[in-house]
Amino acid sequence: MSGATFRPSDAVDFLVIGAGSAGGVMAKELSTAGFRVVVLEQGPYLTEKDYKHDEIGYTYQAGLTNDTKLQPVTYRKSEAEQAKPIKAIMYGRQVGGGSVHFTANYWRFHESDFEERSVFGNVPGAALADWPIKYADLEPYYTKAEYDLGISGLGGANPFEGPRSKPYPLPPMPVKSSGVLFDRGAKKLGLHPYPAPMAILSQPYQGRSACVHCGFCEYFGCEMRAKSSTLVSVIPIAEKTGRCEIRPNSYVRKIETDAHGRATGAVYFDANRREIFQKTKAVVLCSNGAETARLLLMSKSKRFPQGLANSSGLVGKYLMWDNGAEALGLFEQPLNEYKSIVVTRVLHDYYRADPKRGFYGGAGLDARFDFYPANFALRGMPGDAPKWGAEYKKMLATYYTHSMAVLAHTSSLAQEKNSISLDPNLKDRWGLPAMRVTFDFHPDDVKTMKWSLTKQVELLEAAGAKKTWTSSIAMEDQMPSTHLMGTCRMGNDPKLSVVDRNNRAHDIPNLLIADGSSLVTSGRQQPTATIQALAYRAADYAAQAAKRGELG
Amino acid sequence: MQSTRRLWLSQCVGIAALADIAAAQQHAHEAAQSPAPTPFQTLDPATAAEIDALTSQIIPSSDGPGAHEAGIVYFIDRALSTFDADLRDSYRMGMSSVQQKRQEMFAGSTSIATLTSEQQIQLMHAIENTEFFELLRTHTLYGFLGNPSYGGNRNRVGWKLIGFEDRMAYQPPFGYYDAHVDQEAK
């Protein structure tokens, strides 16, 4: 932790709100371009020395994510219901954000993801739309992200991916037993499995050590700095410029605007709950697809009575969910899947939406095991197995080391009725309105998950599983959602979107919004690569616009 | 030349990595020490004995150490004294309704702990669909398979049962199928 120190009264060039997957990229890009940057992060500034292999601390307790004891979240399926407190959404709450605790799957969106409305057509009840940009617009920034952050993979191995300008900077991670079995099953079915692109170092890179296969990736911070979070990759570069200050424990409650409707800075609570106003020439909002919408809605004023950047009324709308379906299989020999990274093989044969199926949707499959011991015992065992007693204990002794999962990451259709809004009744520990989540699946989302599960089971059986079972796809079992997408949609028409094709708010010329909220479609989940590519692209644009004097 | 230099550099980082692993391993081991047994902070001894009896039916001591040997009741006491202090009422009310159930089912019995194992299993079946049972099961399994520093999983008995090794670093191959990947290719 080093870097610059600015006074709140210094009008810095950029005030970035959120130091996560996108905010970390912004910090580095803008500070290395010569700008003075303050990054406000609501969570603490932890490092690898703070992280532990502690399943109770990181999965049973909030660990590295939002703590609903401090910041309650309420949920309802539809507007007709009264929202009740439940951890419906989850995000990384520390410097580095979700890039610290994520699984590290690093998939590019396909070319088709950017034009599904044109290719697939209208879906009743949904707001499926083309993006205002194409894959080719984002490709250079995917590549930049892969090299800046350190991604391991095999370029060209996924036959369904769009063209790439460069291979990955690092070779794929060593295959695990789940990957070998996945390959076996997929090849038997004539499918195209490939080595997983992961934000984890297979070899030393830029002064960081390679992965030592400890197995604690998802939900955990990497003690080896081998997971390519923004915390260990780009944020140190930003701080080294001497022009970037990362300010942790800084919880923003409002973005302020002047008489001309331009953003002037943000009011935040510091660690001692003092309210501080940080001045700036431009604001970059990177607070994730849920908190970004909440902050814009909390930033209402006389001039902007329905919240900031919200003339369309669409801030918070079109929330897309982390849809998925899991199938598990038991095998004859030990796999010991708790060792090493979560995913080593992926398959995109079922990715593209195909009208012939009779519903919209698609799935990206991966071979994985994301169960730490207690979570496997609680949730990973077959539904027909006993849940306690001598027989249960006996089964645990075999199942933990002999099982693997095939997880489908499935599409989530944008619907206007699904949203992030402010809870009218409940407040958080700072007295701010709690986040209210309104969400239910589109019927095609459910059809996609059910269809995908049959493919996953088929694959496990082809791989030689002795027994297979599936997890629940019911709404209450698909919480919390960790991929928070769509709530400040990108588009060309200010009436139908919140940000323009460069992530600049239609309504506020010196406000950029770059995080999961910009996503027009959900891809097949795994949005981090796209969120970061968008951040690189938006930073490029912001730097040029600032140099032309358009933002100040 | 270039490649030699690159190799040398990568080995340098490799040496740093070994030191890092050793430090992280030490850190992990210290964090995973079973603490010395402490007197109960929240539970009274009588309730503790009853909880011990119930959780010992979730993970019995058949064929090796179970919930009792893992110290689950100490884990639960610790949880209710710290991060789950807000669940004390759930335990108080949950245990009271289990006791009521016991009296209904086994008139004249004095405690769960003094029931026969068969009677305890019958009682478990009678409560297995309650919210309190789900809480008890969740605590038992986190205690049995979580980090021993929380007072459960004593001597790592839970990890030993399921075959989880708890090391800071592993080398491939990790399992049978990646060890035999060449045979797979054939």
Give the overall form of chain B: globular
Shape of chain A: globular
Query: What is the strand content of chain A?
Result: 15-25%
Report the β-strand fraction of chain B as a percent range: under 5%
The stretches of 5 or more residues of chain A where confidence is low (pLDDT under 50) are none
Q: Rg of chain B, please?
A: 23 Å
- Count of discrete domains of chain A: 2
Strand order of the largest sheet of chain A: 5-12-13-14-11-17
Largest sheet of chain B: none
Helix content of chain B: 55-70%
Most extensive protein-chain contact, per-chain counts: A-B, 56 and 56 residues
Mean pLDDT of chain A, rounded to whole units?
97
Secondary-structure class of chain B = mainly alpha
Report, as a whole number of angstroms, the end-to-end distance of chain B: 39 Å
Number of strands of chain A: 18
Indicate the multimeric state: heterodimer
Structural overview:
The complex is a heterodimer of chains A (552) and B (186). Chain A is of the alpha/beta class and 552 residues long. Chain A has two domains: 1-152 and 217-323 and 414-437 and 483-552, FAD/NAD(P)-binding domain; 173-196 and 324-410 and 440-480, 2-Layer Sandwich (Cholesterol Oxidase, domain 2). Chain A is 24% helix and 16% strand. Chain A has twelve helices and 18 strands. Chain A has helices at 21-32, 55-60, 98-101, 116-120, 135-150, 177-188, 234-240, 288-298, 373-380, 390-402, 443-462, 528-547, and strands at residues 14-17, 37-40, 73-76, 84-85, 193-195, 244-247, 251-257, 263-269, 275-279, 283-285, 324-330, 343-347, 363-368, 403-410, 419-427, 433-438, 467-470, 511-513. Chain A has a six-stranded antiparallel β-sheet. Chain A has a five-stranded parallel β-sheet with strand order 6-2-1-10-18, with helices on one face. In chain A, a hairpin with a 5-residue loop joins strand 7 and strand 8 (263-269). In chain A, helix 1 packs parallel to helix 12 (528-547), helix 5 crosses helix 12 and helix 6 crosses helix 11 (443-462). Chain A is globular and about 70 Å long. Chain B has helices at residues 2-31, 45-58, 67-70, 72-81, 88-105, 117-127, 131-145, 157-162, 176-179, 181-185. Chain B folds into two domains: 1-31; 45-162, no CATH class. Chain B is built from ten helices and no strands. In chain B, 63% of the residues lie in helices and 0% in strands. With 186 residues, chain B is an all-alpha fold. At the A-B interface, helix 2, helix 6, helix 9 and helix 10 of A face helix 1, helix 7, helix 8 and helix 9 of B.
